[in-house]
Specification:
By secondary structure, the chain is mostly beta strands. It has 1 helix and 9 strands, in the order ββαβββββββ. The chain is rod-shaped, with a radius of gyration of 24 Å. Belongs to the small heat shock protein (HSP20) family.
Length: 150
């Protein structure tokens, strides 16, 4: 059966994962952190301050060691990956599973003048906070004119 999908996300997922529709064939479908399952991940607020910019990103359920921040070619990339614990315990059969494993990332253009030393990051209670210091602006020298006599 061909099922329409957008970016590997079936349009019928919600229908097929209802508790009354469980014949076992869809219960082992791959769970991912993108598509409509990831629509609420990595929501970001960006604020300009006197010293630079502050970026706050929601990453609920992630641990600090599952998050990476990199600076490459003028872009700041925030990526996170999560694996579900697959320990097999005989605690019953799942009726519905909504926790997903996989990877997600966001990229922000920050310019070529920003250096790694200008970036500070912290992670508390599922919120990643990244502070970007403004690089020192090169002062434009004013033209100094010499008076001409005559």
């Amino acid at each position: 059966m061909i099922v329409p999908s957008i970016f590997n996300d079936s349009l019928f997922d919600d229908f097929f994962f209802e508790p009354w529709f469980n014949d076992g064939s869809f219960s082992k479908a791959e769970k991912k952190l993108y598509g409509h399952h990831g629509k609420n991940l990595m929501k970001t607020d960006i604020r300009q301050t006197d010293l630079g910019y502050e970026l706050e990103m929601d990453l609920p359920g992630f641990k600090k060691d599952e998050i990476q921040i990199s600076l490459e070619n003028g872009s700041l990339k925030v990526s996170a990956s999560k694996n579900l614990d697959e320990e097999k315990k005989d605690e019953g059969k799942y009726i519905r599973r909504e926790r997903y494993a996989g990877a997600c990332e966001r990229t922000f253009y920050v310019g070529d003048n920003l250096k790694q030393e200008d970036i500070k990051a912290s992670f508390h209670d599922g919120i990643l906070k990244v502070e970007l210091l403004k690089p020192d602006e090169k002062k434009i020298e004013e033209n100094k004119y010499v008076a001409i006599e005559g």
